[in-house]
Amino acid sequence: MIQDKYRIPDNFILGAASSAWQTEGWYGKKEGHDTFVDLWYKSAPELWHNQIGPKAATDFYHHFKEDIDLMVKSGVKAYRTSIDWSRFIYNLETGEIDPEGAAFYDEVIDYMLEKGVTPMICLEHFDFPGELYETYGGWGSKHVVDLYVKYAAAVFKRYGKKVKQFFTFNEPIVVQTRTILDGLRFPFKQDTPLAMQWNYNKILATARAVEAYKSLKLDGKIGVVINIEYAYPRSDAPHDQKAAQMYDLFYNRMFLDPAVKGEIPKELTEILTEHHCMFDSTGQELEVIKNNTCDNIGLNLYFPMRVKARNSAWNPDVPFHPSYFFDLHELPGRRMNPHRGWEIYPKIMYDMAIRMKEEYGNIEWLISESGMGVEGEKQYKDRNGMIVDDYRIDYISEHMAWLLKAVEEGSNCTGYMLWAFTDCVSPLNSFKNRYGFIEIDLEDNFARHMKKSAHWFHEIGEKKEFEFRRLEPEYR
Questions:
Q1: How far is CA 248 from the centre of its chain?
Q2: I need a surface site. Which of 42, 252, 306, 357 has the fewest CB within 10 A?
Q3: Do the Cβ atoms of 183 and 168 come closer than 8 Å?
Q4: Catalytic residue annotation
Q5: Does pLDDT of 438 surpass 60?
Q6: Residue 420 preceded by cis peptide, ω within 30
Q7: What Å distances lie between residue 345 and 4, 31, 262, 306, CA to CA?
Q8: Sequence-ordered alpha helix ranges (H) in 116-229
Q9: Torsion angle of alpha carbons 186, 203, 368, 121, nearest 10°?
């Protein structure tokens, strides 16, 4: 049963997240040091809402001290962001650090520590160097894995004594799924074997980065952030149950199993082999994966996936795709965020938390992203000009209630982090849907304003408790 009030454990992290490319802008970067996302934006800016992309982003580059001060005022105890690989490394082949780029991250991390905000650093949040895509084809190349390990080692050596939490990737499956598997984004390919090689190489890169981190004997933790797409079957029929299992295999277990258990699921490799999509691997690489599992896991959890068995036969002229095994299902009467088009199902927090306890050895983990994007938030301003985002407060409280219920039952979850701290640029969406505790006013030179949710988040952090609130009818 959900309670009226929930006590927040003393050691439970209340934080927020974002990334380098979605906040920093291109300021201070060297010519030719585009990220993959920069290439994507430059290839077709007209596909981005109002043609706004990562060029300026939120101008965190110039506003980072103001933003960190606002973190303190908002009760954000930890902030997860990424390092822009191409800003930090001047020579990608040698791993030579860019002094100016590193100096920026020095200032950011030092100021966070000065203000009592715990930095959590992700090594890659879609922002890998565009040069590596243009020269080597991106994560399809194992040479890129080698270069990534050099970059990771440089980050660990510079910041390992200050930063106690690193993540190898944010959502490592997403880029190749959208761009190479589904062909929805730049460079608009459809090549399942290549997409699976990207997946494998990122699994290997995580293990090798963990190995490099552990070799330095640093006093901290290293994990990976996985976007869980928890699959619920349409019915209890065996064919629907199997469809959900296959979805889970391809979109969740592919990264979660090797990160925690050190194994790529055998069922997955058998299917890929049968359909001529098996990635290239070696026995030595698989040993590295086996022996270098993560200390903890970040889970980005937004919405459920509803899955059913396919009703139609597979087109033999279409290359293999995971949807060979399933169709998506729209649950009648589901609660929706009408702006983002995502189902709202807070119990997903509890279900995934119990799964981490029962299937993944109760490894330490945290919610590294959760949030609600809303369009046209200015319409909710009060007479003082503050956005009254009660819908976000309700969303967080309902999701955290289910999460803390699982914590009470023994799931080893250590925190909840909102996506995002400030409103920020998102792929294609740009600033259309706003997610932040902090408003970014694009019409007023990136002025920052606290929303009602920021004041509420600070309050519950001080009181160490909150009231369960059910989402407003508009968002049901």
A1: 17
A2: 42
A3: no
A4: 171, 369
A5: yes
A6: yes
A7: 18, 44, 31, 11
A8: 130-136, 142-159, 174-176, 192-215
A9: -90
